[in-house]
Amino acid sequence: MSHHPLPDLRSFGYRRTPQRRLVWDVLHQQGPYLTAEEIYQAIQERNPDFNRTTVYRNLASLRDMGLVEELHAGKGPGRYVTTVDYHGGPQIVCDTCGTVVEIEDASLTRHVEQLAEDNGFVPHQGADIVVYSRCSSCAAKLAPETRGLMMQQAR
Fold first, then answer.
1. If you placed Cys at 90, which of 102, 129, 148, 152 could pair as Cys (CB 3.0 to 4.6 Å)?
2. How confident is the model at residue 36 (pLDDT cuts 50, 70, 90)?
3. What tens digit of pLDDT does each residue of 88-117 get?
4. Share of the chain above pLDDT 90, in %
5. Do domains 1-85 and 87-155 have the same CATH topology?
6. CA–CA distances in Å: residue 12 to residues 25, 28, 60, 69
7. DSSP codes joined into one string, 28-56
8. What architecture is domain 1-85?
9. Range with the lowest mean pLDDT among 35-39, 50-54, 113-117?
10. Residue 79: which residues within 8 A CB-CB, separation 6 or more?
11. Looking at per-residue confidence, does 133 or 31 come out higher?
12. Domain-by-domain residue ranges, the chain?
């Protein structure tokens, strides 16, 4: 992954502090789709004195500036991605662990945009589609009888 430096924040009324730069760097270099806790843990490895509240506060300010997107995936905590790494579009999200997989399918995006138009909507920011499912790792952890019951309900 290429490195995108934290932009000049003065136009947003913020400063480029060392703490904000560290949150940005971890999110950009180790992301996308990290939780605040994962960002905090990664920073703790480099800087044990870094405060958890500082991570949340800086994520909120980066989100408010439009430099970070917060995505709520399933039942888990919000996940963060820098806007330079987030391209929108279809995603499959594990509703158990929150793993996010971006789907590169231009025909699906076009089809959903056409559905919007057919129903009187004017697509102006693309189409974000989120499919909640269960990743193979989480599915494998389910007890066999639970898996069988889920398969019957899906039919």
1. 129
2. very high
3. 677 788 878 878 887 877 788 788 888 888
4. 21
5. no
6. 19, 20, 13, 16
7. HHH-SSEEHHHHHHHHHHH-TT--HHHHH
8. Orthogonal Bundle (1.10)
9. 113-117
10. 32, 33, 34, 35, 70, 71, 72, 73, 98, 100
11. 133
12. 1-85, 87-155
Classify 87-155 by CATH class: alpha beta
Q: For residue 86, give the amino acid letter.
A: Y
Q: Residue 41 forms beta bridges with which residues?
A: none
Residue the block writes with tokens 């999200």: 93
Q: Which of 67-71, 75-79, 111-115 has the lowest mean pLDDT?
A: 75-79
User: Side chain identity at 14, as an amino acid letter?
Assistant: Y
For the chain, how many residues are written?
Answer: 155
